[in-house]
Specification:
Phosphate binds at residue 101. Keywords: Amino-acid biosynthesis, Diaminopimelate biosynthesis, Lysine biosynthesis, Methionine biosynthesis, NADP, Oxidoreductase, Threonine biosynthesis. This protein is of the alpha/beta class and 338 residues long. It has 2 domains: 5-129 and 326-337, Rossmann fold; 133-321, Dihydrodipicolinate Reductase, domain 2, CATH 3.30.360.10. Helix content is 29%, strand content 24%. Helix 1 crosses helix 8 (323-337). The longest helix is centred in the middle third of the chain and has 17 residues, at 131-147. Bound molecules: NADP nicotinamide-adenine-dinucleotide phosphate (NAP). Residues 11-17, 38-39, 41-42, 59, 73-75, 78, 96-97, 131, 161-162, 164-166, 321-322, 325-326 line the site of NADP nicotinamide-adenine-dinucleotide phosphate.
Length: 338
């Protein structure tokens, strides 16, 4: 690849696309030219990049002519339609949608876990995992390497912005309307009012009454960690938090591991910050983890219900799902491509 690259962002006006532009700037990614793409509705708007206004173009196949790297931040349908067009024109695409994640010839990558998979991308497409999967696996992986992974039991507490700009705006709107004593009315994109509430459904219902979001943790986790038999039980909940997903994770290991050993492993793990000081009421919270790239881990303790009492741990983690769960992870993959 050349020293400086033409980088297109498909979905440059959304929550993830906007963050990608910021990440490219912050990480000093060698951009020769930025090509922000979105729907026809946004064509002609501008985005700010490195102190300049750059005009948003309608995402059409020809818009990818001359592009080296595409960062995909649109929905599944746009990704399926447009990224093969970009790839056919020679661009390498790093996509955030679900469209290609489980395809055998598309690597699914968290750079802290399986960077070696990036090299093999025969379709010129590399997939970014689901945001809750990234936030959960970044701290789970180093523990798995120390003690072997048998089973994961996960509950997620996912921010409104996980549903994109419409989700963010809806939680803002509901909070404002309720504070003024009004009725919330239509709650789209959520099925119910989210402010002052929790919604135990993210995605559609699939087999055995699990949601699509819950199955991603299992299916994507198996692919990323190369553990096809991994057992995962996941419950995903939407919570009235603007930004940063939180997760309660119980890990059953092959071998014993103590909370102190886990803290030691995690204190050296890439992408992780241990915040675990119950005596001083210090633990990860979404307000503290927003707008930065580390996954904070705390509340590390033995699972007292484990059969042998020593081979399972429970912990709590929070991470900014727009950054590490999406934009930063994609830019990290692009950095590996360089
Ligand atoms: N939000 C998260 O926390 C998160 C985390 C991980 C992965 N993801 C995934 O990342 C992707 C983007 O999510 P998001 O949250 O950023 O959504 P979003 O805020 O709703 O943004 C969607 C983007 O897609 C563009 N778009 C819509 N229709 C289009 C079309 N026909 N052609 C071209 N562009 C079109 C939109 O452009 P307009 O402004 O012109 O409509 C906008 O830029 C999704 O696949 C999502 O599942 C999201």
């Amino acid at each position: 690849m050349a020293d400086k690259l033409v980088v297109a962002i498909l979905g440059a006006t959304g929550v993830v696309g906007t963050q990608m532009i910021q990440c490219l700037e912050e990480r000093d990614f060698p951009v020769e030219r930025l090509v922000p793409l979105a729907s026809a509705r946004s064509a002609g708007k501008t985005v700010r990049f490195n102190g300049e206004d750059v005009t948003v173009l309608e995402a059409t196949p020809d818009a990818f002519d001359g592009v080296d790297i595409v960062l995909g931040a649109a929905g599944d349908a746009q990704a399926k339609e447009l990224l093969p067009e970009a790839a056919a024109r020679g661009a390498v695409c790093v996509d955030n949608s679900h469209a290609f994640r489980l395809d055998a010839d598309v690597p699914l990558v968290i750079p802290e876990i399986n960077p070696e998979d990036i090299a093999n991308h025969p379709r010129n497409i590399i997939a970014n995992p689901n945001c809750a999967t990234i936030i959960g696996l970044v701290p789970t992986w180093p523990l798995a390497q120390r003690a072997g992974l048998k089973r994961l039991i996960v509950s997620t507490y996912q921010a409104a912005s996980g549903a994109g700009m419409p989700g963010l705006r809806e939680l803002e709107r509901e909070s404002r309307v309720l504070a003024e004593g009004g009725e919330v009315g239509d709650t789209a994109p959520f099925a119910y009012q989210l402010a002052f509430n929790l919604i135990p459904q993210i995605g559609g219902f699939k087999e055995e009454a699990y949601t699509s979001e819950e199955l991603k943790m299992q299916n994507e986790g198996r692919k990323i960690m190369h553990m096809p038999e991994l057992r995962v039980n996941c419950t995903c909940v939407r919570v009235p938090v603007m930004r940063s997903h939180s997760e309660s994770i119980t890990v059953e290991f092959e071998r014993p591991i103590t909370p102190d050993e886990a803290r030691e492993v995690l204190s050296k793990a890439p992408g992780v910050k241990v915040v675990d000081d119950p005596a001083n009421l210090r633990y990860p919270m979404p307000l503290d983890t927003s707008d930065q790239d580390l996954v904070y881990v705390g509340r590390i303790r033995r699972d007292l219900s484990a059969p042998d009492g020593v081979s399972a741990l429970t912990f709590w983690c929070c991470g900014d799902q727009i950054r590490k769960g999406a934009a930063t992870n994609a830019v990290q993959i692009a950095e590996h491509l360089l």
